[in-house]
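Input for the complex:
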Amino acid sequence: MNFVSSIVLVDIALLAMLGVVAVAIIRLKSLFAIVMLSGVYSLVSATWFVAMDAVDVAFTEAAVGAGISTALMLGAMLLTARRVKTPDKAGARRWGPFLAVFATGGLLIFASTDLPAFGDPNSPANSYVGKDYIERTPSEVGPPNIVTAVLASYRGFDTFGETVVIFAAGVAVALLIGFGERALAFSGQRSVTPEPVSPDDHHMVLRVVSKLLIPLIALYAFYVQFHGDYGPGGGFQAGVIFAVAVILNALIFGLSETMDAVPAGAARAGAAFGVLLYGGVGVVNLLNGGAFLDYDYLFETPAPGSYDPHHWGQHFGILLVELGVLATVASTMIVIFYAFAGRAPEIRDEDW
Amino acid sequence: MPDYVLSHYNYWVVIVLMMVGLYIVFESGNLIKRLVGLSIFQTSVFLLYISLGKVAGGTAPILIGGGHGGDKSHGGDESHGAEGAHAVEAVDAHAGGHGGAHDAAHGAEHAAEILYSNPLPHVLILTAIVVGVATLSVGLAISVRIREAYGSVENDEIRAADISLGEAEETAA
Amino acid sequence: MSWFAEYLWAPAALADHAAALIVAAPLIAAAAVAMAPNGRFAWVMTLATAGFCFWMALSLAGDIGRDGLVSYALGGWAPPMGIEFRADALNAMILLLIGMIAVLACIFSLPAVEREVRAEKRPLFYSAFLICLAGLLGMTITGDAFNLFVFLEISSISTYVLVALGASRDRRALPSAFNYLIMGTIGATFFVIGVGFLYAATGTLNMADIAARIAVMEENRAVHAGFAFIVVGLGLKAAMYPLHQWLPGAYAYAPSFVTVFLSATATKAAFYALVRFLFSVFNPQTFPFAETLLVWVLAPLAGIAIVACSFQAAFQTDVRRILAYSSVAQVGYMLLGVATGTALGLSAGMFHLLNHSLMKGALFMAIGGAALYAPCSKLTDLAGAGKKAPWTMSAFAVAGLSLIGFPLTAGFLSKWRLLEASLDVGWMWAVAIIGLASVLAAIYVGRVLEAAFFREAPEGGPDIREAPLLVLAPLWTLAIMNIWFGIDSSLPLGLAQAGADAVFSGVYALTGSAP
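Predicted:
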């Protein structure tokens, strides 16, 4: 009953907060508030993930959902509108969505009665493949963080696909808003130059503090990257954190200055490089006679029946693909941020 | 009955959250708000998956003292009373040359001592989170372009703009 | 089929890994193409990659023809721990189709993209196309339910942007792409919910393994709900009525090359996945509710789709919208065949799927080719096009006749087979619907042909000219296939039949390791 008393209380409290936030979003009209609450929703979810032992997921949700997503939504909001308009709705259009959602939810709740009990260690989900990963990772892959082993090795192709999804998003955003006369990021124009720093500038504190923080954030990204085998973390989280360092720099010191330090072209190349590195590891495995992404074949064709207690192949394979993920995620996030931030807004005062 | 509720309420709350997100997508006419609804819907599905992988009394799926040359810096292992096993493992690692069977035995032993939550849903949801942010950024970029082309991000106004130009032929909702 | 297999056979080192390479090659190439210095260079790389994928598809088809099933463990991890690519004759058919259409569409893309996409965007545009191609191939070949979701999203995200790029011609591409994004994401999330319920019930994500484990759970509500959500999610992607609302706008306003490729492949890959879940994962023989769903939900929806969307097509004034609504109706035909639940019906549906790709690819390609120099697709704009662009528009006429189901075309044979399948299960209503819809198809195709061939071009109308050779070559390849397969259908019908037989003989199922 220890489990019930502690985890369940945290669980109920966090879920209740999520419910309040979600319902509040329905009612709100200010896009700024909606976007902020959406970030809060992600952050509370991340806390809940920790309570559910999903530390890697929590880390990612906090960095991606609460961090980058919110920043992108704010960027898009600056380029579109500040408030939601309320059109008059006829009865069918008001009740249609409600009924559709009610029916779907009803079906789900009906079905959930046959789901295994929450926390059941013997449920099919927790006793079959999931348990095998826990038992076999030490002898087959190596890293103590099983999530890293499954992510990068057992289900490495999913992760390759995921890297390409991020890359695709970068390509998509660049194609949509990265070109043309309104885009500063790719046309080589300079964006609005930041005002000269004067002693009474109210950004002074921000500038000094962030000057200290930005290198530390970048350093932390690399810690998260290389510690991913042993604790929560890995390429995705590290990539997002690294991108955040660049984004923070752009917010405080101006976009054009940041684009001088990290050029848009370099970011695009970095995104492509990450995918090529990940795919390249797979091709090397093929050339050594293994299956695609079989890291045991990273350096050479293992002799039949041999066993490498150190799993060097797996170790370096995971290291390399995680580096690929880092490169693609960090670069793509920077490309996407540049595209949004470099788009000249065509928004009139009355729209605000 | 209370036991049954206690073992399933989690799913029900998560389903309600999913439906709130879906409702925002269907109900709102504002493109940005619809995207927010979509991401709440997706995040709530993540909650469902993570619920499935929770093991009562379990801990995060990071092997304590397991693995090769395992880093000793991860926090939290002391609290599980595993210092003994931990030390033994470290000695083993220094001795070197031990085979995989030995290691597997250790892994299994630890798995039996310490309950770990299921790592597979975590991996799946990591993937899904990343897919979610990719979709979101593409949706936002399209909204920006719509704002530039139509001067609005409200569904009704976009449709009205097309109709007023005589262009709209039953644009899909 | 064997004659080209002799010459095009891949060396064993490649053939052994064809399953992985067919997906990995375009994924890797997409990153390289994004860095290409100009559009021409990117096009050459893209064409080479598409050709490579087609080659790998041929190699896989050869292997499957020999062994019945190809299973590839990615990362060397045996399923269900690792991700498995698992392909039988049904996959082989779709892979061949996507590979072939990709090559033909890619040839067409050089002149089309130079007209419709700005120079500096072209490398990224081709990169997005390759990502989409890889996603569709991955959806078709993967044997892992969650991996299917990843590929579904890979293809979807690239599709949204490819559609949105039509905005340089018509701003309505943007809201269309946005609607597609919202509906597509809801569909994909429904699919994930469904997979989650199946995972909760079985503990595995491997599709063949799920099939083996749920075979004893026919009363489990979580399994039922998982099934329902997967069908809705994939149905959305396959434009199954009434979840098709995203399709007309997306096809009508996308760049013409994108429409050619998507209309011939995107819904097809999703439709394949739907069939795989309907028959190989949820076997209707062990799941009474799956059969109920086929007969009482999918079959009526198919009938409504065929009639309603054929009517809507007949009332459109824009040729691309006519063809788009017709596409939804054609998905109805395929679904009708599948819903009979027999091997005959499935092979008829799959045969129609192949033929529909050939005709819609040709039709959209012809419209894109005729309007290459003057972006237009209104019926009135096409008046007299038959005289100005005789080769282009006669290919349109051939494919149009095939769409109607005129004898001596491929469309006739697949509709005939659908009639046979309907009669086989005693569905007289389906026979009536196919007859009615063929009349409607004759009306909507006839309107275009009438405008193109029997009306005089108006003064000052759009500048419609004969399409260049790079359009005519792939266009006539498709048009000739429509006639060839109408006379000698042994190749496509053989593929479709082998696919249906493989599904019903349970080749896909796990052997010997039932829990």
